[in-house]
Amino acid sequence: MARTVVIGGGASGIAAARTLHDAGHDVVLVEASDRLGGRARSLPLASLLSRRAAIPDQLSAFAENHVDAGCGWLHSAQRNPWTSIAEATGFSVDRSEANWRTQWRDLGFTSEDQAAASQAYQSWNARAQDALDGPDRPLSDFIDADDKWRPKIDAISGYANGANLTQVSLHDWAAYEDASTDDNWTVKEGYGTLVTSHAAGLTVRLSMPVTRIDHSGRRLRVDTPAGTIEADHVVVCVPTTVLATSQIVFDPPFPDKHAAAADLPLGLADKVFLHVDRPEWPTNAHLIGKPYSACTASHRLSPFGWPIVESFFGGDCAEMLEDRDAAQFAIDELVGLLGSDWRNRFTPLTATRWRQEPYIGGSYSHARISKAAQRGVLAAPVDGRIHFAGEACHPYDFSTAHGAYETGVAAARAIIGEPAPIA
């Protein structure tokens, strides 16, 4: 029987291996790190609390729950395949409003300024959309550098793209925007928990980085520190950082793949999780820390009613905070809005540093200016034997776990002989 090796145990790799396994194919999933999920990673609150000498009574009741260090939102949820997988396997999908556009009690952000900022964003968006028939340009071209709301829009780009306006391709951005819908839901048990649960029953080899793929002979030879695996097909489901830096060597080489990966770098988005004593806001409230700054967090207050705050940083701000005390930055922002008596009510639980994560090195991809077409180059199979999948390979749902899923399924179906190209 033909054997397939799926390289990379994130959302795309799990989807590819699951599809092949369920079709009766001989498939093994190899993952470089010691866990599955990749950028979909849920952390049990119990493990975060175990680092503390004492667990607050109000938090101990929630200790069996999980928080998402990586992807946390079912974007475009009604057409997102992870939504139906969650519902079919007993996960709890929360359809509550994300509240990203609201500022709890208008703290530090008057209703008049909120309206003005919204209008500025809509005007910027319209100018960008009007330019789509022309050459590709950076998103920063559509708002003046000295515009009062440029920092706010830059912060939004950091959250959405993992990069600031000057770094993001207009054509690439528009492909995502035109396809996305405004239904953003969550999984109470954790998006990462959902993704990894989809690997149940698969043959998996952890802590097994692939160093070389020799495709010069009749069979493919996949080299790992544990030995060489022979295969008839390979599905490469690794972040663009891995390919761009040649952590996997192709023999003979694929210079076009390395170039495409370099043109689709991973931006950065990081999170801080805080315990809060006696929260006074409703479930899933929201605050922007400094609405007039490009370096600020989007603070999600008491998700699912838990006494925690999830603070989200993106772009240049996240890059800066990877080498600083991001938790203290988040607390300072919240205290600046809520008052000094709140300082002792926040306790850091953990902070992510995705740029420093081995075998990942970032969050989600964006295209460099004039390089949006490189997604198709990266995704193209080679010789009918080597397939590529992952969020960066999707033409419009890139940067998402559902985009990763769809590319993994498409690669698997091509191997099975039931191609289902992404529209």
TrEMBL record:
Question: A GO term (biological process) for this protein?
Answer: auxin biosynthetic process
Q: Is Oxidoreductase one of the keywords UniProt gives this record?
A: yes
PANTHER family listed in its UniProt record: FLAVIN MONOAMINE OXIDASE (PTHR10742), LYSINE-SPECIFIC HISTONE DEMETHYLASE 2 (PTHR10742:SF410)
Residues forming the Amine oxidase domain are 12-172, 182-416
Membership in a protein family? Belongs to the tryptophan 2-monooxygenase family.
Pathway noted in the entry: Plant hormone metabolism; auxin biosynthesis
Provide the residue positions that the database annotates as binding FAD: 12, 31-32, 210
Spell out the reaction equation it catalyses.
L-tryptophan + O2 = indole-3-acetamide + CO2 + H2O
Q: List the source organism.
A: Sphingomonas aurantiaca
Name what cofactor the protein needs. FAD
Q: What is its EC number?
A: 1.13.12.3
Q: What keywords were assigned to this record? A: Auxin biosynthesis, Oxidoreductase
* This protein's name: Tryptophan 2-monooxygenase
Pfam family of the protein (one):
Amino_oxidase
Q: Where does substrate bind?
A: 312
On whether Oxidoreductase is a keyword of this UniProt record, the answer is: yes
Taxonomic path: Bacteria, Pseudomonadati, Pseudomonadota, Alphaproteobacteria, Sphingomonadales
Q: Which InterPro entries match?
A: Amino_oxidase, FAD/NAD-bd_sf, Flavin_amine_oxidase, Flavin_monoamine_oxidase
Q: Name one GO molecular function term.
A: tryptophan 2-monooxygenase activity
